[in-house]
Amino acid sequence: MGVVIPLGEAASDAGIGKLWSLVRTDMDRVNQAIVARTGSDVAMIPEVANHLIESGGKRLRPMMTLAAAGLCGYSGDGHVKLAASVEFMHTATLLHDDVVDQSDMRRGKLAARMLWGNEASVLVGDFLLGQAFRMMVEVGSLPCLSVLADAAAVIAEGEVMQISAAKDTATTEDDYIAVIRAKTAALFAAACEVGPILAGRPKAEMAACRAYGTNLGIAFQLIDDALDYGGSSSTLGKNVGDDFREGKITLPVVLSFRRGSAEERAFWSRTLEKGEITDPDLDTAIATMRRHRAIEDTIERARHYGAMARDALELFPASEHKAALLDVVDFCIRRAN
Amino acid sequence: MGVVIPLGEAASDAGIGKLWSLVRTDMDRVNQAIVARTGSDVAMIPEVANHLIESGGKRLRPMMTLAAAGLCGYSGDGHVKLAASVEFMHTATLLHDDVVDQSDMRRGKLAARMLWGNEASVLVGDFLLGQAFRMMVEVGSLPCLSVLADAAAVIAEGEVMQISAAKDTATTEDDYIAVIRAKTAALFAAACEVGPILAGRPKAEMAACRAYGTNLGIAFQLIDDALDYGGSSSTLGKNVGDDFREGKITLPVVLSFRRGSAEERAFWSRTLEKGEITDPDLDTAIATMRRHRAIEDTIERARHYGAMARDALELFPASEHKAALLDVVDFCIRRAN
């Protein structure tokens, strides 16, 4: 199971099939909003935006918004625009990340910055963020705006935290979880929390949906980190070892470094801190991780957060939406197998 | 009169002295909000943000928000946070612009990207934009949020328009005005419009403040463009000829190209479209512009927009705030002398 699933195939996937069939009609409207709001008289904007948007991301985050709204019995229209806003925030982050990481590839295609330059990636990202806020304002819920504006600031804070820690092998597991809680989990949390807010549900349900999103987001990122040292280029939609080459300290590295010998630590310092990487180093890195069970244990940690996500939903009575959201947790973790 | 005025000197400037004394107390609160909201446990965020924020920009845009609110008799508190939001939106744009333009200098100092890297400039810009929206949400006026979210999207659209047109000497004056209407004037317009909205004033007054801001913003940018070919490094706070070296097509170039001989057009195509620039080319560019009165006429066009800005305010009865806002128009245009 790869990270990238073309939208059309999602229905046939056992893991998010239930989710997909529940939100399908609303997702059509979300997709229409996405197409409409990437439109601009400035031709480069839809070109750059659609290059990424049409490249077959799962659109998991907007589906979470729709499903959480459904879970809470919301019957209005606002969830569609908020779901599209969430996807735009995510797309803006990806465009900016590619510039920050100097990535060549994204979702198995050349990154937008390779085709249109860094400047287009920065500015089209800014445009999508502006359009996201426009849609949120149209929905008109100040509490939802508050949750999503918080997420926007926290995501950027997490990304800065990551570049600050990027070259530091002394990063602890706690440090690392703090980074991904901000850079990845904050958007999942916001995507899920706006559902009960729109539906006017009590605080406990808002908190439950938020906790579900946070823990799912952390699990999702940890699996991504594991896959970066364990998948193959075709299933990942990015080059295996990207994190390694970019000197990113992710949990598999943190665990390997702590558990390693002095010689192994020197290896991590040379490759990740000093960036002196030769051809066989990625294989050595993966072999070292396997020896210390660092990849398996990263997946094990993901299961822990997945279990917390599942428990957060226990507040809600059984429903199709609840079952679908529980399936998403399994889907996210099973990607690593 | 240079573009960069350290905050402390602003009071002694005849042009915006009236404005400064009217908004001084509120500006202290805006500055407190700015300091508080650049704070983060991630040390790099306040470092990067404050490098730019403390580098002595005029903070003209937040002063416009305060003055327009005063003009409309607003007696609440919301204008302070909105003014800080406007300054954060502006700062975020500058950080991203430096990456887009690959600038080395900003306000007479090394650009943040030269000290902390492109990635920090992109991400701290994103953080400030997130913080700006947080503050707007705290103020709680959906119509103000709408105006400012629109501006965020339009600014980015204008910047993309500019990079699309960057190397095209066939750009018309209309094309160029459309670019600066979006990338510069949209934020001035929004900064001024939120005042009457907060004060609950009639539509005609919102439109008047918006028109004032738009036309002032256009005049401001045209003078900046003229200064880029006419000032000196120390008064500009950036290197004279930056626009030329970056191949930016601004109004002085548009006018010189249209009015020029075939040989001169070949010069503009070589330098700006092909980017083949040698040492004496900047002097040749400036001499060519002088010969065609392109710099004077750019300033003349700025006067035209300045007059429209002034007329937009005629709706309002005489007041200290009105007089101060009228002075700002003169101040912006006199910078070129």
Task: Give your account of this protein's structure.
2 copies of one chain form a homodimer. The first copy, chain A, has 337 residues and is mainly α. Chain A has a single domain, classed as Orthogonal Bundle (Farnesyl Diphosphate Synthase). The first copy, chain A, contains 16 helices and 2 strands. The first copy, chain A, has a two-stranded antiparallel sheet. In chain A, β1 and β2 form a beta hairpin. Chain A starts with 13 loop residues before the first helix and ends with a helix. The model of chain A is unreliable at 1-12 (pLDDT under 50). The A-B interface holds A 40, 42-45, 96, 99-101, 117-120, 122-124, 126-127, 129-131, 133-134, 136-138, 140, 142, 145-146, 149-157, 159-161, 163-164 and B 40, 42-45, 96, 99-101, 117-120, 122-124, 126-127, 129-131, 133-134, 136-138, 140, 142, 145-146, 149-157, 159-161, 163-164.
First-residue to last-residue Cα separation of chain A:
7 Å
Strand numbers in spatial order across the main sheet of chain A: 1-2
Protein chains sharing the most extensive interface: A-B, 44 and 44 residues
CATH arch. level architecture of chain A:
Orthogonal Bundle
Strand content of chain A: under 5%
Question: Helical percent range of chain A?
Answer: over 70%
Q: Uncertain runs of chain A with pLDDT below 50, 5 residues or more?
A: 1-12
Number of helices of chain A: 16
